[in-house]
Amino acid sequence: KIIRRLVKGQRSQDFESFHTLRSALSWSPDGKHIAFVSKRKDRDVINIVNAENGKRLRRISLRFDSVYYPAYSPEGGRLAFVGSDNGRPGVFVLDLGNEEVEALHIGALEYSGAAWSPDGNWLAFSCIAPGYVDSLDIFGRMGPLNRPDRDIYFVGVDDGVLTRLTWCRSE
């Protein structure tokens, strides 16, 4: 049962489409807003809408090739997201006050998701082969029977220290 439709994609210039396999939304910590990514013209934009009535409060257009998986920080002043900047995938943090973006980790083959620790000091994400995009060594190791698996990592928001939580079968 649909209680209320907040936005409607593919029929509006404002919300042309949503990423089919990489769509995600994030509730603000106070539960009043929802952040999500949609296409507008040739760009991914981050939308922040009122959770009660669907009215868009902000549209943030970043100069990124792609943007996915927005995640509100616990205090609500930042959004983490996965994106690609000039062809380089990574995990980024957007300051909602001044709209400045900081790269927390770049250089993996592919990233998925972003989740804040409750204290806001860490971001968890999964990725394939961190660091291999820089060396291109990953392509020599890949094949139909030998492809890298995805692992889970934490990165310190203040210091950028990367900690691996899981180890995939291929290593």
Report the helical percentage: under 10%
Q: What is the average of the pLDDT values?
A: 80
Number of helices: 2
Strand order of the largest sheet: 1-2-3-4
Mind describing the biggest β-sheet?
4 strands, antiparallel
Number of strands: 12
Structural class: mainly beta
Estimate the global geometry from the Cα principal axes.
globular
Describe what is shown at a glance:
The chain has about 170 residues and is mainly beta. Helices cover about 5% and strands about 45% of the residues.
Could you characterize the architecture of this molecule?
Helix content is 5%, strand content 46%. The chain contains 2 helices and 12 strands. It has helices spanning 132-135, 138-141; strands at 25-27, 33-40, 43-50, 56-61, 66-72, 78-85, 88-95, 101-106, 110-116, 122-128, 150-156, 162-164. A 4-stranded antiparallel β-sheet has the order 1-2-3-4, with no helix packed on it. The chain has a 4-stranded antiparallel β-sheet with strand order 5-6-7-8, with no helix packed on it. Strands 9-10-11-12 form a 4-stranded antiparallel β-sheet, with no helix packed on it. The longest helix is centred in the last third of the chain and has 4 residues, at 132-135. The radius of gyration is 17 Å and the shape is globular.
